[in-house]
Write a structure and sequence with these properties.
The chain is α+β, with helices and mostly antiparallel strands. 18% of the residues lie in helices and 46% in strands. It has four helices and twelve strands. The strands form three sheets. It has a seven-stranded antiparallel beta sheet. The structure holds flavin mononucleotide. The site of flavin mononucleotide (FMN) has 16 residues, from strand 3 and strand 5.
Length: 156
């Protein structure tokens, strides 16, 4: 199969943008993802896929917990920040956050958030498939989501 055809097909799926955040000692880590999805209602479980070898590969497995921050339409800059080279601890502090039960930072200004305990890490080719068990959830019905479609941000 042609790789560009595969990528173009995947880019045709409109996806919500989330930032996965976690605590490590006195600092924070995080990455922007579109691979987040729900898995199970009982127990409440979700997953996301993380590229092997990125800065979070290792620290997130060690932290044993993470938060999924579903971005709102005003948070394009937050998405770009957590997809780039910026210091994650500074980014979390600039964005504003509350500490969840697991110790993970839940970012301010999001449309919804999930505080999760890491459950399993499965091999997924050049990515890890990371599942989490959700310990708390919130959502803000007044906000609109940030979407990603055909390599650009979109709004509803
Ligand atoms: C819209 C968007 C979606 C992304 N989705 C994913 C994803 O699902 N999984 C992933 O590993 N990286 C994804 N990335 C890339 C990561 O955000 C990027 O590699 C980030 O710098 C990793 O952070 P780290 O190196 O601090 O761990 C995405 C980037 C953008 C802009």
């Amino acid at each position: 199969m042609n790789e560009n055809e595969f990528k173009d097909a995947l880019a045709s799926l409109a996806a919500g943008v989330s930032v996965v955040t976690y605590a490590q000692d006195d600092s924070f880590g995080g990455l922007t993802v579109t691979s987040f999805t729900s898995v199970s209602m009982d127990p409440p479980m979700i997953l996301f896929c993380m590229r092997k070898g990125i800065a979070s590969d290792g620290p997130i497995q060690n932290s044993r917990a993470f938060a999924v921050n579903m971005l709102s339409s005003e948070q394009e800059e937050v998405s770009n920040g957590f997809a780039g080279k910026q210091d994650r601890t500074a980014l979390v502090k600039e964005t504003g956050y509350k500490t969840g039960e697991t110790g993970s930072p839940l970012l301010d200004g999001c449309i919804a958030g999930l505080d999760c305990r890491l459950r399993d890490v499965f091999d997924g080719g050049d990515h890890w498939i990371i599942t989490g068990e959700v310990v708390s959830a919130f959502s803000d019905s007044k906000k609109q989501p940030l979407l990603y479609f055909r390599r650009g941000y979109r709004q509803l």
